[in-house]
Amino acid sequence: MTDSPNLADLRKTYDKGSLNDGEALNSPLLQFSLWLREALDKNLPEPNAMTVATVGQNGRPSSRVVLIKGYDEQGIVWFTNYASRKGHELEQNPFAALQFHWVELERVVRIEGRVEKIKPEESDAYFASRPLSHRIGAWASRQSEEISNRAIVVARAAEYGLKFGLNPPRPPHWGGYRLTPDYWEFWQGRASRLHDRLAYRLRDGEWQQSRLSP
Predict the structure, then answer these.
(1) pLDDT in tens, 129-154
(2) Distance (Å, whole) CA 115 – CA 190
(3) What is the mean pLDDT of residues 83-104?
(4) Residue 150's CB: how many other CB atoms inside 10 A?
C-alpha cells in the first residue's frame, strides 16, 4: 500500500484582504476588472487562466483550464477547438461555469451563463495575431481525440507547416466562445474561515448584489 500524505492536517490562514459590505463595486464586470488588474499588476503566474466547466448530454460535468482573451459588457471570451470535448458539450448544453483562482491574493471569481460562438471575423482577427507555431498547432491537433503516440501530432504539425508556410488560415473547427454572465460570485479569503462571498444575479436587466454565508 502506498503511503499517502496527511492532507487532513494541512492548514492555511487567510489574511490577505477583505470584501466588506459597501466595498464592492455595483457592477460585477467592474469588480472583476479591478481584481484582474491587481492580479496582472502583481505579476501572478498566469493570472488569465480560468477553469471552464461544461456538462454533456449524459449529465456528467467536465472541466479544463483555458486562457481568457477578452471581456466586456457582452461577456467573457476564450478560444479553442470547436471539435473538442468541451465544444461538443457546449453544442449539447450551451451553458458553462468559469472560475478564476488567484491563490496569492486568496481570491476566487465564479461566473455562470450562456455560451455562444463569437463572429467568424472576430475569430479570424485573433487567429491572425497568434504566433505562427500556434496557428499551425491549431491545424495539427484534433483536440480530445485519442492518438497512439506524440509523433503523430508532431508529424501533422510538420505537414501543415509545409502546406501553409507563413500564412495558415484559421481552421473551420477553431474559434472563439463568449459566455454572457447571469451570475457572478467573488470570494475573498478571511481569517477563521469566515470568508467574504458576494454574489451578483441578473434580474430584469439589473445586477442585484447579495452576501452569501461562507
Answers:
(1) 999 999 999 999 988 888 899 999 99
(2) 32
(3) 97
(4) 8
Q: pTM for the complete prediction?
A: 0.93
Burial bucket for residue 36 (CB in 10 Å: 0-12, 13-18, 19+): middle
In tens, the pLDDT along 3-30 reads: 788 888 888 889 999 999 999 999 999 9
Within 8 A by CB and 6+ apart from 98, the residues are 50, 51, 52, 53, 76, 110, 111, 112, 179
Helix ranges restricted to H, 64-207: 85-92, 120-129, 132-140, 150-164
Query: Of 79, 29, 91, nearest to 54 (Cα)?
Result: 91
Q: Please identify every residue annotated as catalytic.
A: 193
CB contact set of 48 (below 8 Å; sequence gap of 6+): 36, 67, 68, 69
pLDDT at 69: 98
CATH of domain 13-130+172-211: 2.30.110.10
Q: Average pLDDT over the chain, rounded to whole?
A: 96
What HEC string does 49-103 produce?
Answer: EEEEEEECCCCCEEEEEEECCEEECCEEEEEEECCCHHHHHHHHCCEEEEEEEEH
